[in-house]
């Protein structure tokens, strides 16, 4: 897989096991960990708040439409937090009843 990705000029970086020595710069590894934490947070929010694992649809068009709507709702919530100078991924208190 790594060779196939290299043909498309994609460099896949993976975490190393504890018994392996890491030759990458420490700042690069910290940046990778930060990006991974952000991605896992967004996936967790999409799973918990938007129930993205259970998108019930009978055909591909409805499935993709519902998936895109959930992604758009998440993006709008992040944008609203950004406009209000709040932490982008803190959705609590964003909309008050």
What does this structure look like?
It is a single chain. The protein has 97 residues and is an all-alpha fold. The chain has helices at residues 2-7, 26-48, 60-83. It is extended.
Report the count of strand segments: 0
Mean pLDDT: 88
Instruction: Quickly count the helices.
Output: 3
Question: Whole-number radius of gyration?
Answer: 18 Å
- What shape does the CA trace take? extended
Largest sheet: none
Strand content: under 5%
Give the end-to-end Cα distance, rounded to a whole number of Å: 50 Å
In total, the number of domains comes to 1
H/E series? HHH
Class of secondary structure makeup: mainly alpha
Poorly predicted ranges (pLDDT <50, ≥5 residues)?
none
Helix content: 40-55%
Keywords:
97 residues; mainly alpha; 3 helices; extended
List the helices and strands and how they pair.
Blueprint (H helix, E strand, L loop, with lengths): L1 H6 L18 H23 L11 H24 L14
Short synopsis of the structure:
By secondary structure, this protein is mainly α.
């Amino acid at each position: 897989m790594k060779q196939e990705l290299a043909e498309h000029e994609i460099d896949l970086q993976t975490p190393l096991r504890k018994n392996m020595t890491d030759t990458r710069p420490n700042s690069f590894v910290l940046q990778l960990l930060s990006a991974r934490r952000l991605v896992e947070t967004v996936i967790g929010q999409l799973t918990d708040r938007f129930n993205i694992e259970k998108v019930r649809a009978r055909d591909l068009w409805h499935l993709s439409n519902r998936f895109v709507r959930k992604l758009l709702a998440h993006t709008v919530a992040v944008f609203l937090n950004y406009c209000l100078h709040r932490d982008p991924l803190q959705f609590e208190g964003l909309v008050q009843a």
